[in-house]
Amino acid sequence: MSKVGIREVAKLAGVSTGTVSRILNDHPSVTNELRARVTAIIKDLGYTPDPSARSMRGKVSRLIGIVIPDLTNPFFAELVQSAEQAAANHGYNIIVMTSFDHAAKEADRIKQLTSRKVDGIMLVPSNDFHTLKLPKGLPIVVVDRLMPGYSGIAADHRNGVRLGVEHLLQLGHRRIGFISGPGHSVPANDRLRGYLDAIEQARERADGTRMAGPPLIAEAAFDYESGRSAGNYLLARARNERPTAIFASSDQQAIGCMRAAHDLGIPIPAALSILGFDGIPLASMTTPRLTTVKQPIQDIAAAAVAVLLNKQTAPELDNPILFACEILKGETTAPPQPD
Amino acid sequence: MSKVGIREVAKLAGVSTGTVSRILNDHPSVTNELRARVTAIIKDLGYTPDPSARSMRGKVSRLIGIVIPDLTNPFFAELVQSAEQAAANHGYNIIVMTSFDHAAKEADRIKQLTSRKVDGIMLVPSNDFHTLKLPKGLPIVVVDRLMPGYSGIAADHRNGVRLGVEHLLQLGHRRIGFISGPGHSVPANDRLRGYLDAIEQARERADGTRMAGPPLIAEAAFDYESGRSAGNYLLARARNERPTAIFASSDQQAIGCMRAAHDLGIPIPAALSILGFDGIPLASMTTPRLTTVKQPIQDIAAAAVAVLLNKQTAPELDNPILFACEILKGETTAPPQPD
DNA sequence: TTGTAAGCGTTATCAG
DNA sequence: CTGATAACGCTTACAA
């Protein structure tokens, strides 16, 4: 059943193993006639090349490594799943590893992948990732959390957030709170910048309109519980002082914030609009459904795989490939009530 | 940097490559003294054995394949993550694949894994999985969705559900609705059986107490939307007729059901208790927090890996290893109001 | 207990 | 364009 190797094929086809190998690897210099005949025999015999032997002799393992901080995070889960699909389409498989946002573990995992001879690594760097030396010669594409000095692929967080703020502004909101991500996280800072951009811009064009003053930014981790307490913080003031809309840096934060509002007796979206970021499936499962800025996860994954397989030219240093985000309208945003 | 092979080690240690190999593989017949010396040199040189060569020559790849229906499902995501950790502890890595509950894709993935020479496969079979021939000689452990005729590892769904029903009974509920999973799914049927067990048992010991009559079971897919419509179905009757508690077969169903109740103006848990099953992180993120029966995912994953690595004897045919579930108390269950 | 040497299944080089 | 043939880095009889 499984004893069939390249030699059997060669013998049965009356050619040499070399020829079979060339056919297997789409080497151009083989007669079409021959190629057809041998291919038929291959299929007939049910022969499959042995990946281990291939990756030992050749320099290709058809294996891609993915290192992410946390598979439990729906965003990363979808990223991995999309990458798996994209890779499978090219005959590649995926080895996943979780770093738990721990730099040492991450370094170890990358070393493992290197020794596995993976053909490339897709990396979402851990947050305390600072001085890791990436192995040279091995294609690595940094995804989502872009690192200065490395090429990468990600959603355009900054413009995505700007888009979201515009949406709130157009609804008539003027006191727009922002729950920021952890300060040491690159995408968190990008999102914050997007918020500041949009607010600044609104201020400039708002001749008479006042953009309200009190602190409207709260820093928090990306998770649910942090979003909740940040929400509490932002909402803990008189009605005509507190924000009429809150933009959270992640859907999980947004959902936590919804809960905070609920506990304070503030109806959504009547008295408070909430906008999330990410577009995870969970967003459409809340009551009311969360309006959110969706990242094109599949596109990101596909692009990353394409780059690793040299199907697409890699992004240049400090000049990442960015994908546009779009607003996914739910039921948590509406025009503000008059004070 | 990377040119160091077993020969370098051997030369530098003044031994043969064979000896080094034996040391690498913990072969018993090597002097401790020698072992220590060579090990030191290995570490010193930063030598790492080439996995491709190893898996080609030997019969071990230190690779485990995992095939699941959907990585986006938080339950499976956690399963994979836990397995990855467990495997890493033994020097093993994980190749993940998604079948999308599609039998053909699943078969293809399994074949790929076989040719990769993985040392074992952890499989959550797709639901339209009927007549797949599993490759012989390759350890496969079926997880979560047990298939009759195969050995497997899973949570004890039946007893878990029974536990949940007991909880509701103790709170005083007598009309307990049940949202079942899709009829063709094995765990769904196990859960349904658990419900029937508990109800039956309650009926027997309930001398005078009446266990209410009207249809209290609704079949639905495991997802959110299905849970919602099943909830609507069960709740669409007069207050003194409808269930005072609903047990859903998945957390996602339960959350959908919460939304249905909400839309009908039925307060939770005041007028309706809701109990979920799975214990995904999402369960603690709803408002109010969902009470649920938690599956010990990490234990399941660890056991599956242990079996694949022969660290633990495999479960016998038709005699699966089952792990107990436990109730995770949230805020959606309370004593029923009088009619 | 340790050394020697023969492959494992492919790919790549080099002739023909 | 195709056929021999030598590696690739390691494990494992078999010998010593």
From TrEMBL, chains A, B:
Protein name as annotated: Substrate-binding domain-containing protein
Species in which this protein is naturally found: Rhizobium leguminosarum
PANTHER family the record matches: LACI-RELATED TRANSCRIPTIONAL REPRESSOR (PTHR30146), LACTOSE OPERON REPRESSOR (PTHR30146:SF153)
SMART domains named in the record: HTH_LACI (SM00354)
Residue ranges constituting the HTH lacI-type domain according to the UniProt record: 4-58
Record-linked Pfam families: LacI (PF00356), Peripla_BP_3 (PF13377)
One function term, GO molecular function aspect: transcription cis-regulatory region binding
Alphabetical keyword list: DNA-binding, Transcription, Transcription regulation
